[in-house]
């Protein structure tokens, strides 16, 4: 074992608001903050084990994250201060005997692979490493609402995490700080107190610490906006299909069998609704049509369940890095009556396409007894699909 990471997540999050959920378990862009932070370290090259320190009574919240990774150790419980929590996290790694350890705050979920690598690299030549950033604001020492002095900032830098240490050295430093009843707000200070030389590396301005409810809300909004922008290539496709009625006792529509006085006739199960939706998705992708991907001349598709076609089109959207925004279909036929089956068809289509049911519309009309549909010779479906594809191609490494 070379390098382990301790992620400190034991806070009750009082500063982030009075919500029942501690801040490290609040969602950012749909993913809990702690899951984001832990995920970054599990994914980082050069990190061999990840030890999370959770708060007492937060075991269920942690379990609720459902985090599984080969590097991830079972969580240990923290204490009443950050310093005690770190000490316990370090102790939990004793059996692994790592040579180095990174100590990181759960409240910095945007830590980059580059920063983690910078800290690990610097540990080759130093026993203590802290990422720092120049201080941009002018600093005032204030007492009782009055400025006492302006603090020169030319040699001042702000410390971030992860901070990296030789494991044995930081364990000893924490023990010394505890013996001296000395309280520190970061581990570099614990190391300084023990007389370790602390080396700096360039911090990352994107590695922000989310402390207040407003900061969490702002980060959540930024992620949502990023996602909207990322999938900003919005496309719409149209699909049409028709099948004749023939002998039978049921029709397949929207992936479910609906009792009827006739059946619909086709090479596959003749589900006009799923066929029109499939063509709408393929149209949005500019990727041919159902006949091209599933030619009627191919015996494999004889009697096929049409869910296969729609699922394939949905998979093509996913393969392009996109999402389906909505699917909408209109059935035109003199029967069967679809309104009693509308929600079952919506649920079926949503399940096949892998989207939420509120993104699926199903409507039906007769043709007022006009034309071939009006004479009951067949039924048709018109469909529209809207998809969102990445605005930019994925970055090449
Ligand atoms: Mg068809």
What does this entry look like structurally?
The protein has helices at residues 33-43, 59-65, 82-92, 113-122, 167-179, 187-193, 213-230, 272-285, 290-293, 307-319, 342-353, 371-374, and strands at residues 3-9, 27-28, 31-32, 49-54, 76-77, 100-105, 128-134, 139-143, 146-151, 157-159, 163-166, 199-202, 233-246, 250-253, 256-259, 263-264, 323-332, 360-365, 378-389. The mean pLDDT is 93. Strand 8 (139-143) and strand 9 (146-151) form a beta hairpin. Helix 5 (167-179) crosses helix 6 (187-193). Strands 1, 4, 5, 6, 7, 10, 11 and 12 form an eight-stranded mixed β-sheet that branches. A five-stranded mixed β-sheet has the order 16-13-19-17-18. A two-stranded antiparallel sheet has the order 2-3. It starts with a strand and ends in an 8-residue tail after the last strand. The protein has 397 residues and is of the alpha/beta class. The protein binds magnesium ion. Magnesium ion is lined by residues 241, 243, 266, 272, 275.
């Amino acid at each position: 074992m070379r390098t382990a990471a301790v992620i400190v997540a034991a806070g009750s999050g009082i500063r982030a608001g009075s919500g029942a959920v501690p801040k490290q378990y609040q969602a950012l862009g749909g993913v809990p903050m702690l899951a984001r932070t832990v995920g970054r370290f599990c994914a980082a090259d050069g990190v061999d084990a990840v030890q999370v320190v959770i708060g007492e009574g937060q075991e269920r919240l942690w379990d609720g994250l459902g985090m599984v990774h080969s590097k991830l150790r079972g969580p240990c419980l923290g204490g009443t201060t950050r310093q005690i929590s770190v000490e316990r996290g370090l102790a939990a790694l004793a059996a692994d005997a790592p040579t180095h350890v990174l100590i990181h705050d759960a409240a910095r979920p945007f830590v980059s692979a580059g920063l983690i690598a910078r800290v690990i690299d610097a540990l080759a030549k130093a026993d203590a490493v802290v990422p720092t950033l120049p201080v941009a604001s002018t600093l005032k020492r204030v007492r009782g609402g009055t400025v006492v002095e302006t603090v020169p900032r030319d040699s001042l830098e702000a410390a971030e995490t992860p901070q990296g240490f030789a494991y044995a050295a930081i364990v000893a430093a924490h023990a010394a700080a505890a013996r001296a009843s000395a309280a520190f707000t970061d581990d570099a200070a614990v190391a300084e107190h023990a007389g370790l030389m602390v080396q700096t590396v360039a911090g990352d301005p994107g590695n922000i610490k989310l402390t207040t409810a407003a900061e969490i809300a702002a980060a959540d909004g930024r992620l949502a906006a990023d996602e909207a922008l990322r999938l900003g290539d919005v496309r719409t496709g149209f699909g049409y299909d028709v099948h004749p009625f023939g002998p039978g006792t049921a029709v397949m529509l929207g992936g479910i069998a609906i009792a009827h006085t006739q059946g619909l006739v086709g090479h596959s199960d003749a589900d006009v609704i799923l066929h029109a939706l499939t063509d709408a998705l393929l149209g949005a992708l500019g990727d041919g049509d159902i006949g091209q991907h599933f030619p009627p001349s191919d015996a494999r598709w004889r009697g096929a369940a049409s869910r296969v076609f729609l699922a394939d089109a949905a998979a093509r959207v996913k393969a392009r890095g996109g999402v389906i925004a909505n699917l909408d279909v209109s059935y035109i036929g003199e029967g069967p009556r679809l309104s009693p089956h509308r929600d079952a068809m919506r649920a079926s289509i949503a399940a096949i396409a892998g989207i939420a049911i509120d993104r699926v519309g199903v409507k039906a009309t007769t043709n007022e007894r006009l034309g071939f549909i009006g004479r009951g010779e067949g039924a048709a479906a018109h469909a529209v699909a809207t998809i969102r594809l990445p605005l930019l191609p994925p970055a090449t490494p």
